Task: structure prediction
Amino acid sequence: MEQVTQAILGGVAAQAVFGKTLGKRAWVVGAVAGVLPDIDLFFEPWADPRFPIELHRTWTHALAITPVGALVALALFLPFKRFRAQWKPVYGAALVGWLTHAPLDACTSYGTKIWLPFSDAWVAWDLISIIDPVFSIVLLVGLVLAVRRVSSRPAVVALCLALLYLGLGMLQRERALGVQRQLADARGHTVEHARAIPVLGSIVLWRTLYRAEAEHAVVADAHRLVPFWDRAVQERGSRPRLHPRIVASDSSHVVHRFFTFTDGLAVVGARPGAASDGSVFRASDPRYSLTYGLDGMWGMDIGSMSVHWFDARDDVAGGIGSVLAQVFGTDGAWRSLDDVLETYR
Result:
């Protein structure tokens, strides 16, 4: 999740557990500790420039490092006498705050290496987008009420509601995967690997991606799933999937790391403005896209002798502007699932 929500969650959790001991100071410690794991965003200068986001959500997000991370957070408060006098519960609040960060990141689709050093796997549960106003506001209201009343109860209630919201996200993810299976069956595709990914700011809008085995392609669909009611679809086409073997040996190792990072869903296409002879092509990560299609927000421009990173996240504001229209179906592009399936019969 983005850093504001991470701080709020850390603050709410610390206030719920240590509010009676630390009073209004508990949430401050939890909020600071809750956002500190994202210090790895500043590691980019030491990363491979061909894959600069590779170090994010790795070692500082590992659950095993939580006790050490909490010590770092504690050290920030020790210069202040009021915190130093209660250093043990302050450490506990920091521990709780730090511990909230990685599991929440794992609820998104980006991936988080929470099991380091025991496993190098990227964990992504696809329950919530990296920005979700409903989730954030519920936690913020609980935090404000808990601090104003100097009571743990509103914080506990907010945490319970947040967990219920994540549970609803899980139900929505399964609905999206169910629709995806129906579409793949209707197309005659054998699904090799599938993901359902919540769209920025909503658990009503979803994108599904699957690798179609025979076609050696990744297929994308968009879904508007009003909880317990409507199912509408937009077919978004397919694109050839990336395989590291297509790249020259001197660059294949970094491309393989990118392929693993994208959960094997990286796709290839022409690089904008490149020559039409295919000597340079673009490999992108379709899990995060400004559209419902397969144009990723970041990826690699790959040539015969070189690999260069591209990043289109500066354009994200334009993508957010259409979310409400998509949620309420006012853009006119949605079709009912039954209508779409009928076209394949």
Remarks:
- Residues 153-187 form the longest helix (35 residues).
